[in-house]
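Task 17 of the worksheet. Students: predict the tertiary structure of the chain below and write it out as structure tokens. Keep your answer in the requested format; marks are given for formatting as well as content.
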Amino acid sequence: MKAPDIAYLRVTSLHEALAALALHGDNAMVLAGGQSLMAMHNLRVAHAGVLVDINRIPGLDAIRVRDGALVIGCLARHAMLETSALVRRHAPLVAQAMPHVAHHAIRNRGTIGGSLALADPAAELPACCVALDAVLLVAGTHGTRRIDAADFFTGVYETALQSGELLLEVHIPLAADDAVQRFAEVARRHGDFAIAGAALAARRAHQCLVAVRLALLGMGDRPLLAQRTMALLEGNDPGRIDAPALAAALAADADPMDDPAYPATYRRRVIEVVVRRMLDAIAGQAA
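Model answer:
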């Protein structure tokens, strides 16, 4: 299908971008990688009166360490995250997740800011940010504000971004020397949207996991922080978690949507297998 008529505005500075977003309000959408946005326009799933193209703003694709955090600019491409030595060192969970994101051609254009702002509940990066306790810096004409990743995603394709705001940076705490970070998902074909997946960030204390954060994707209307499963894993050997207890905890944490292809009961079974395999891999690595 052809896209509907859209006004196009290319900006070259953050000030210009924020002014344009403030002027056009809810009628404006930000164009970064456009890998989801343009397809949604073509299908009439989304429509903006004005596309504000931020690709010419310098510095928004930077990946650097600052103030004890890995700071990733909103225009950092998926391919940059996949190959960045800083990401592999300080946020290995993100590096593990990136090969699961679509395909090479899409990763060359898609951006972290676009993925997070889209808020697809089956996407990898939102779950990783929730598991890593990331903080998202958003900017508007009023100034900047910081939003915890766990509070940023509010529903299917819905976020805490307000009209006129731009997601500017992602701040991820640096992985400790004893960090344990794992990502796993199941999709029908590699690059497809995940049926179910999990992002785990923890620390190792001897054979046990502590400071556990587990985020589930494809299991609700947003990335879900699996509180009951986290409590089950906290302070325990991942290879010795009781299978029925794990299944019960995940069932309590997950709220999968029913659809003809993948019923909720099937998704629940898939996430059990995903997390069990993840824990077994962690235990095997420790051994």
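Marker's comment: The longest strand covers residues 196-205. The radius of gyration is 19 Å.
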